[in-house]
Design brief:
Its EC number is 3.2.1.78. This protein is of the alpha/beta class. It has 14 helices and 13 strands. Bound molecules: 2-acetamido-2-deoxy-beta-D-glucopyranose (3 copies).
Length: 430
Amino acid sequence: MDSNWREKRLYPILGVFTIFCFLYLNFKDDLSFTFPVITWNLPHMSFVGVNHTRFVTHLQEEVYVNGWNSYWLMEESVRGPSSRSRVSKMLKKGSQMGLTVCRTWAFSDGPGSADLQIRPGVFNERVFKALDYVLVEARRHRIRLILSLVNNLNAYGGKAQYVSWAEEAGINVSSSTDSFFSDPTIKGYYKSYVKAIVTRKNSYTGILYSEEPSIFAWELMNEPRCESISSAPVLQDWITEMAAFVKSLDQKHLVTVGLEGFYGSKLAMNYGTNPGDWAASLGSDFITNSAIKDIDFASVHAYPHSWIPEADLEAKVKYLSNWADAHISDSENVLKKPVLFTEVGAPLTINTEGLYDRDILLKIVYDKIYESAKEREAGSGVLIWQLLVEGVEEYSDEFSFVAWKYPSTYKLILEQSSRLQNMSSQGQMS
Ligand SMILES: *[C@@H]1O[C@H](CO)[C@@H](O)[C@H](O)[C@H]1NC(C)=O
Ligand SMILES: *[C@@H]1O[C@H](CO)[C@@H](O)[C@H](O)[C@H]1NC(C)=O
Ligand SMILES: *[C@@H]1O[C@H](CO)[C@@H](O)[C@H](O)[C@H]1NC(C)=O
């Protein structure tokens, strides 16, 4: 690897300069002007690829993921030095817990002062630098990021903002937000946005995002859903087109959809593991959407408390267990791609035996992944929804927590990290 060679040759020569850069990154308060942080300062990481149903490094070493979500990293980074230290702390703590992948928002669409994309194709450079900072800090802590590119939901603008932009521009779009997936103008907006992100040159490191190994994957959308089931073919075409578009700009990174994993077809073998009939009416389908050629791995979410709220804990456990089995099995046998459970969330409820529901449910999916990994099958990891550090409670929801404040959960996370690291080949993070 040429970058490897360069690092080895230049490390000794530039030692002093490296230390300077390190200090700069740690203690510089005002990052408003651009100073090129020399890339030799950053740890070497390899890109993650896919071999059959497994994630692998370029040396074909298997990678199993214990990871987490902190959607708020860019937004928090915008605010200033003390906020940035919270972002750094989250990544550092994640690394100390043995977590290797963090999923976060690389979008914020709207006219607000902390929004990344103010108008279609127009960016707030200050916010972009905040995202640059997140990437640098991830790299420093050897964390890989899954960067999600737009929201299905209205938070941070989402597809509804894109539709409004088109309306404001006088485009005759239908009032349904499904036009996000079909209207040529809106698809053009999304593509120009994606292009700006993927081809971005990090203002601190000078590294193109497309060349940055601390990015694990691009996620096309957080939880795509349609308003009308008749839009299902439109969503399928959108995923096909957009995945190919990302690949045309970046051949080094993996691409995933961002699905919740619902089965859209009653003919699917595992249709019965859906949380309800409603799940089949959202226009998405785990099998057909994930089967698209340029989609490298499948993604699934799991929220038994939201999806089957009336069920008791025992029923939730059973549901989650079947849900995990179904997706691992379909990924192994039908899709022949790895699968990541990119959001698994449960509330802090304590049951009669003094145990957290969250621990019980999380352990179900952790165990499924471990068992699958032992067989070298498609179940490749879990990302908890979601972790916070002290001082960022405003990003909280009923499934968010500061991990080290809950010793039982903390222990569970550490155990999963340790047994997956054991499964992964030595060079997982090299
Ligand atoms: C994929 O993994 C298999 C089994 O470990 C290995 O034999 C094969 O060479 C790998 N494929 C590539 C393209 O490296
Ligand atoms: C907008 O599109 C609809 C459906 O395609 C069409 O019926 C309508 O006439 C269009 N409106 C204008 C102002 O072009
Ligand atoms: C790691 O693997 C070794 C041998 O394969 C095993 O003895 C040990 O118990 C494992 N540790 C964990 C934490 O799973």
